[in-house]
Design a protein that fits this description.
The protein is α/β, with parallel strands linked by helices and 229 residues long. Helix content is 44%, strand content 14%. The structure holds lactic acid (LAC). The site of lactic acid (LAC) has 10 residues, from loops.
Length: 229
């Protein structure tokens, strides 16, 4: 089978957490204190963080992603019977400097060299995103960073994906949107973007409308897919 290809792509837009940055790396960095619990804390932290974004959006009770992330961490620590304010502060601090996946910088470089525009579209607050990008050394690799904080509603509300379309000023059909969160890719595709599901962990497909056009297991193949190889 020939490798998948998307034609007419002028901009590549990326989800941040789980796609560019490894969200488990915060708990991993505190392994010395969390011990064998680090993975369970990381998994519960992430699952609760996402579910709180969905629940708060449905409730009409937006708070920014920093607060949601802190609330989710409080739940995850309580679930393991951990009550340690300084460890909590350390984990939150680590969330500001998550480890980027190893291929990210090179992929962004290639896309930009080929004249593609690049952007982030994320639930993250502007401060969190600026910090993650800077600590990963990726400052020079994005034309724009779009945060849902501008409209105070979380993914997968369709208005979120419009932020990238309107902000970049290109048609939805000229954008490829990469996310490791399958539901995020489905939602982007439903808004007319080309969705690339970066299925890093071998997840089974979601049973949701608008399956992503392309599935890859890391971002390495993206330049070839969008004609930037
Ligand atoms: C984000 C979450 C969904 O970055 O990973 O928007």
């Amino acid at each position: 089978m020939p490798p998948p290809h998307l034609s007419g792509i002028s901009a590549c837009v990326f989800d941040a957490y789980g796609t560019l940055f490894d969200v488990a790396s915060a708990a991993e960095a505190c392994r010395d204190q969390l011990g064998e619990h680090w993975r369970a804390v990381a998994d519960t932290w992430r699952a609760k963080q996402l579910s709180y974004t969905w629940l708060r959006s449905l409730m009409g009770r937006y708070v920014d992603f920093w607060q949601v992330t802190g609330d989710a961490l409080d739940f995850a620590l309580a679930a393991r019977r951990i009550n340690d304010p300084s460890l909590r502060a350390r984990l939150m601090d680590c969330y500001l400097s998550l480890r980027p996946y190893s291929e990210v910088a090179q992929v962004l470089q290639r896309l930009r060299k080929a004249g593609k525009r690049t952007a982030i579209l994320s639930n993250g607050s502007p401060r969190m995103l600026a910090s993650a990008v800077q600590s990963a050394g990726l400052d020079d690799y994005f034309d724009a960073v779009f945060s849902v904080d501008a409209i105070k509603i979380y993914k997968p509300d369709p208005r979120v994906y419009r932020l990238a379309i309107d902000g970049l000023g290109v048609p939805a059909g000229a954008i490829s949107f990469q996310s490791s969160n399958a539901w995020d890719a489905h939602a982007a595709q439903a808004c007319g973007l080309h969705a690339v599901w970066c299925n890093r962990t071998g997840q089974i497909p979601e049973r949701l409308p608008e399956p992503p056009e392309i599935e890859i297991d890391s971002l390495t193949d993206l330049p070839a897919i969008v004609g930037a190889a």
